[in-house]
Structures are given as structure tokens and as C-alpha cells.
Amino acid sequence: MQPRNMSMSGVVDLAAVKAAGEAKAKAEQARAQRQDPANASATAASPLVIEVTEETFESDVLQRSAEVPVVISFWADQAEQSKQLNAVLERLAAEYRGRFVLGTAEVYANQMLFQQFGVQGVPAVFAILAGQAMPLFQGSAPEDQITEVLDQLIAVAEQRFGIVGAEVDPGEAAAPAAEAPPRPATPQELALSAAHDALDEGDLAGAIQAYRNVLSDEPGNAEAKLGLAQAELLDRVQGADQQAVRAAAAASPSDVQAQLAAADLDLVGGHVEDAFGRLVDTVRRTAGDDRDTVRLRLLELFEVIGPDDPRVVTARTALARVLF
To answer: What are the φ/ψ torsions at residue 171 (nearest 5 degrees)?
Structure first.
């Protein structure tokens, strides 16, 4: 994916004059507090990289953004590109020594944030200044372009809002003085973790049953829905003769099972649009139970990719046209 919005041009227009004045006042107050010896230890222990959740967004991001630019990186475990970008951003956060704070937000665990920011895919990077969000870029990017955007962000933060992050020693920031004891996992979380472990170990039958157990108790669990869709997809393509499957699909466009098998291989191979297009065309050509079978499989594949992915949105629209 090519980076988009790799520029801070026009970002100043996102802030009203009143908001900028209030931000400068808050920034001055924050600097005064940091200079107070009584607050020195707390400042030194301030982390440069934080994990953002919907529960901590108010305190860890919005409030903090009055003192220092906060960069939020949306990522997903299934998107290797987003994890690689996080590694670069974490290293840069240490090099910039507190001139910005990096927050990482896993999209499947924070779907409300994902939707509120209007993220179209991962990786996606935003900045928060004085409580105001602005897009930085989407997709991977060369490090020199990332540092250029960060430099512009820091300049805007200081010039427009008077926000200057306090210099932090990366070693001290990485080792806070004390941590709260971990919260015991709930039975539902333990069951979900067991399902993930089974999937990672290649025990597809065990993973499928474990995810179904979670969903029987919590039908709306998005993480379990995604895991089940992935496990079932991998189970269907396991041991498939790709050449034979594709030949059968090409020879019989009206053969529902042949098209379903070929769509699974398309998706596993990364040809997402081909998989969706194949099944939408099959829905168009079929009726009755066959049509419903194909429609339900398409909805399962949507779960694998993620409901907010632009390719899913486009395919849903196409499906609606052929259905109605």
C-alpha cells in the first residue's frame, strides 16, 4: 500500500484560534508542573510508547495531547506491514526523546476508535494535538518521509499550540517505577486465548470448536468471529490441489462448490478482490438454496478481511445490487 497524506500541509487549519490559545495555556501550565522538583520522578517515568485502548483514550491521549504531540498508529496482528511500521515508530520515539509520544492501537480490540477515526485500512497513522485529531499518513513509508512528517508535526505543535514535549531519557521511560498488578483474565478471555493458541499451533479443528464455544456464550465477540472465519477458511483449503480446483471452477462457472473452493484459494493467496468478485458473480447466476449458500460464504470471507476494509465495503455494495 502506498502512503497517502504524507504531508502536514493544511494541518494548521484544523485548529480554531480559541483552541490554540487554550492549548498554549495548558502547555505553559504543564511545563511549569514539569519544572517542579516534586514532579520530577513522574516526568522521568513517563513512557514514550503507550498502548492505546478505548478505555484509556481520554486520559492517555486526549489529556496528554495538551502537553506533547501524540502519534497514534492503528495496526492489526494480521497486517505484517503495520507491525513493521510500529517498530520504526517506536525506535523514532526513542530517538526524538519525548518530543512526541507514540500510541499504538490494535484495530480489532478497539473497533470504536477504528470507526471514529475513519480508518480505511492498516497501517494508518494520526496525530492528536490539543485534543484535535489529524491524519498523518496511511500505509508504509520510507523512514526519511516519516521523520519529515514528524518534524512538521512537532513544528506545528510548538508554533501553533505552544506544545513542546519535555526531553525524556528513553531508558528511564522504558522502566516506570511501579506497575499495577495485572488484572486476572476472565474465563471468556482464557477461552479466547486457548482458541488463538490452537490456531497458531495449526490445530484447526480445535481452534474452530474453541471459537464456537466463545461465540455460544458471547455471540457478538468480534475477535472470536474473526478467528473462527480464519480457522474455517484455512481448514477448507488445507490439502487442496490448487490446479485442480481452479480448473474445475473455470470449466463450470455455475458449479457452486467449485466457485466456493476457488474463492477460498483466491483469498488465501491474497487475491481479495478476485475472491469477492467470483462469489458476487456466482450469487448473480444462482437462486434459492445455492444463492443463499454463496451469500453466506461471502459474508464469512468479509469477516476474515474485516468489515471496514474498503474492498469489503465495495463488495457489500455489489452484493446488494445483485440481491435486490
So the answer is: -65, -40
CA distances from 303 to 2, 111, 207, 225, 307 (A): 24, 13, 16, 7, 6
Q: Give dist(CA 75, CA 81) in Å, integer.
A: 9
Per-residue pLDDT of the chain in tens (324 residues, 90 and over written 9): 334 444 443 332 333 333 444 444 454 554 455 445 444 443 334 589 999 998 999 989 998 998 999 999 999 888 889 999 999 999 999 999 999 999 999 988 888 888 888 887 889 999 999 888 889 988 888 999 999 999 999 988 888 778 887 777 665 555 444 555 776 878 888 888 899 899 888 899 999 999 999 999 988 888 888 889 889 999 999 989 999 999 999 999 989 999 999 999 999 888 999 999 999 999 999 999 999 999 999 999 998 887 778 899 999 999 999 988
Report the predicted TM-score, pTM, of the whole model to 2 decimal places.
0.45
Helix axes 288-305, 222-237, angle to 10 degrees: 110
> What is each CA distance from 109 to 74, 224, 282, 285, in whole angstroms?
11, 11, 33, 38
3-state secondary structure of 51: strand
Nearest partner of 121 among 314, 310, 316, judged by Cα = 310
* Cα distance between residue 26 and residue 224, in whole Å: 42
**Residue 63 DSSP class:** I
* Strand duo 124-129 + 101-106: pairing: unpaired
